[in-house]
Amino acid sequence: MTRFRVLAAAIASVAALAGPIAAQASSCSNFSRPAPACNLACTSPVVDGNWVWLPSIQVPVAAWGFAPPGTPDSQAFGFPGSNGNYTRPSPA
Fold first, then answer.
1. Which of 49, 67, 81, 91 has the fewest CB within 10 Å, making it most exposed?
2. Please, is 64 exposed, middle or buried when counting C-beta atoms within 10 Å of its C-beta (0-12, 13-18, 19+)?
3. Using CA of residue 44, residue 46, residue 47, residue 48, what is the dihedral sign?
């Protein structure tokens, strides 16, 4: 019975620690989306909706980054839906 309680406590601890880590994964990248015309030579940020061309913001990855509405990334850069509402644009 003691082994069962120790095992149950260990499983509960792992589940409690894994939850917040998964919940913080709010941004993603897209390597298959076509690059903008300036490609790796962009001198100013290239933004298309909630997508940003990562090399244009000095991230050394040839991919688009996505900031879902309402996330800290979206709010920091003022992307569409930064208030967390997918159905209407954020107020200007």
1. 91
2. buried
3. positive
Rounded Cα–Cα distance for residues 22 and 9 (Å): 20
CA angle 76, 84, 30 (to 5 degrees): 70
Q: What digits encode the pLDDT tens for the residues 6-24?
A: 666 666 666 655 555 444 5
pTM of structure:
0.60
| Amino acid of residue 88 | R
Q: Both tokens of residue 26?
A: 């709010």
* Spatial CA neighbour of 47 closest among 72, 64, 68, 27: 64
E strand intervals along 12-92? 28-30, 47-48, 51-53, 64-66
Please give the biggest Cα pair distance in the chain. Answer: 65
Amino acid at position 80, single letter: P
What is residue 89's predicted lDDT score, i.e. its pLDDT? 53
